[in-house]
Automatic annotation (TrEMBL):
The keyword Acyltransferase applies. It comes from the Bacteria. CDD domains: nitrilase. InterPro entries: Aliph_Amidase/BUP, C-N_Hydrolase, C-N_Hydrolase_sf. The lineage of its organism: Bacteria, Pseudomonadati, Planctomycetota, Planctomycetia, Pirellulales. This is Nitrilase/cyanide hydratase and apolipoprotein N-acyltransferase. Residues 14-260 form the CN hydrolase domain. It comes from Rhodopirellula europaea SH398. It holds the Pfam family CN_hydrolase.
Length: 262
């Protein structure tokens, strides 16, 4: 589905793109090109906010990210800010964040002028997948924008009840969530229903639309090596109704119109 809408003619709407792209572990420059191409395509479709997947510069289960990742703000967010500014879009991107000897699974929101306006660090970290593991984040927050209050979580945060409830307390108008939703090859496409149901439950609890963007590709290391990221990104209403779904195991820039703010 390329376009969908959940807005009456009289409502203020925001066009959001789920940029469901391939990401290759450790291929920073290639992944940046794939991100830029996706953002340009989304912008050409009229997107005002472009949402990318989890850890899409270095990969999710990639211990080398301890050496490759940069602080936030830093080199990686500078490159992403340039893309956002050039295309005049808000950009939500999952990336690895280095702080001292710690590595965080983070997501940043950059506005259409290239300013970093919000960062979230994943709280529900699966520590057994990588050594050393990601450090857990501690905070949940939202930011006031021209589209209303925007919040961000990351993947497994959305099936951790306490984290979802904390976000509900922030009363966002829109939640952007990057995913790295993976399973054995034989479990796709049916595994996408678990992603849909997770996003739908969180949307009902938090009370706002959720745009959840999954990655496409495979896990290249660790105990889940060879598992497939199957795409099937979802945009879901607060009533848990699916507005848009990304392709199964393939790249797609999926655009949806959502009511925002008052």
């Amino acid at each position: 589905m390329a376009y969908a809408t959940d807005a009456a003619e009289s409502e203020k709407v925001c066009r959001v793109a789920m940029a469901q792209i391939y990401c290759i572990d450790g291929d920073r420059e290639g992944n940046l090109r794939r991100i830029e191409n996706a953002v340009e395509e989304a912008s050409a479709k009229g997107a005002e906010i472009v949402c990318l997947p989890e850890t899409c510069l270095y990969g999710w289960v990639n211990a080398k990210a301890h050496e490759l990742a940069h602080p936030v703000p830093g080199k990686d967010t500078d490159a992403l800010a340039k893309i956002a500014r050039k295309n005049r879009v808000f950009l939500s991107v999952g990336l690895s964040e280095k702080e001292g000897d710690q590595l965080f699974d983070s997501v940043v929101l950059i506005d259409d002028e290239g300013k970093l306006i919000l960062k979230h660090r994943k709280m529900n970290v699966l520590t057994h997948l990588m050594s050393p593991p990601y450090t857990r984040g501690e905070t949940v927050d939202v930011v006031e924008t021209k589209f209303g209050r925007i919040g961000m979580l990351i993947c497994a945060d959305t099936f951790h009840d306490e984290t979802v409830q904390r976000m509900a307390g922030k009363q966002p108008d829109l939640l952007l969530v990057p995913y790295g939703w993976a399973a054995n090859a034989g479990d796709w496409p049916q595994h996408g229903t678990s992603l849909r149901d997770t996003i739908a439950r969180a949307a009902k609890t938090i009370g706002c639309p959720i745009v959840g963007t999954n990655v496409v590709g495979s896990i290249s290391g660790g105990p889940w090596q060879g598992m497939i990221y199957g795409g099937q990104s979802y945009a879901v209403t607060p009533e848990a109704r699916v507005l848009a779904q990304g392709a199964d195991r393939d790249r797609e820039i999926c655009v949806v119109d959502l009511p925002v703010g008052e």
